[in-house]
Structure formats: C-alpha cells, structure tokens
Specification:
This protein is α/β, with parallel strands linked by helices. It has 4 helices and 5 strands. It has a 5-stranded mixed sheet with strand order 1-2-3-4-5. The termini are far apart.
C-alpha cells in the first residue's frame, strides 16, 4: 500500500470505524456511515441521538488523520465548501493540537474534537455513564 492511500484512505477509515464501534448499540443512537449522496466525501459519519423528550442531537463527522494540523488547516482553508455544522474528529494523540485547528475553522461554523471527546459527548447526550 502506498503512503497516499495509507494517509488519506486507511487512517481516517480506522477513526470512523472506531467511532462506530464505540457508539453502536448505545440507546437512542443512529449511525450512518459515509452518508453523502451528492458529494460522497462531504463527511464520513452522521450521528443522530434522539432521546424521547429531549432535543435531537446531530453530528456530521469528518474524520481527519493528518500528521500536521497546520497542513490540515491549510488544506481546509483552501476547500471552498466546508459544511456549516461539520465536526472534524482528530485522533486522540492530537488532543493538544485541536485548539489550533479549531481556531482556523471556527468562522466557517466547523467544530474540532477528538474521537474520545466526541464519544463522551454522545454518551452524555443519550444518558449513558462515561
């Protein structure tokens, strides 16, 4: 496997599958993998949490496994169509770098978090202890 396929194909898919594994089977959680119809790579996972009597929560997740958040930030700033409400998910080892990326995309209505942080948020939203 060449480096390009590993970096831009395999690594992000591993993050997406980790999210699915952590969230699948939780109460009130619906997961849709690779939901884009018109633009298949618009985002990777759609998470819906519909707890009766509470506001339904949605996350449109784009998993990114780039070595450099600086390079990722540049690539995202050059991307004309970033969907407002998108959540970019980084690997947990980039936790300390997420604030840098978040500052670069905040004006476009995009949030940045890590896999573990998103799982904690989703569990809290569906009432499951962390």
């Amino acid at each position: 496997m060449n480096r390009h396929v590993w970096r831009y194909g395999t690594l992000p898919v591993l993050l997406e599958l980790q999210l699915r594994e952590e969230l699948e089977g939780l109460p009130f959680v619906e997961l849709e993998m690779w939901p884009g119809e018109q633009r298949p790579d618009e985002y990777d996972v759609h998470i819906t949490i519909a707890v009766p009597g509470k506001r339904t929560r949605h996350w449109r997740v784009d998993a990114k496994a780039w070595e450099s958040v600086v390079a990722l930030g540049k690539a995202l700033s050059d991307r004309p169509a970033l969907r407002k409400g998108l959540t970019i998910v980084l690997p947990d080892h980039q936790h300390s770098e997420r604030h840098f990326l978040a500052a670069q995309v905040r004006e476009r209505g995009v949030k940045v978090t890590t896999v573990s942080r998103l799982v904690k948020q989703a569990k809290a939203a569906c009432g499951v202890p962390r």
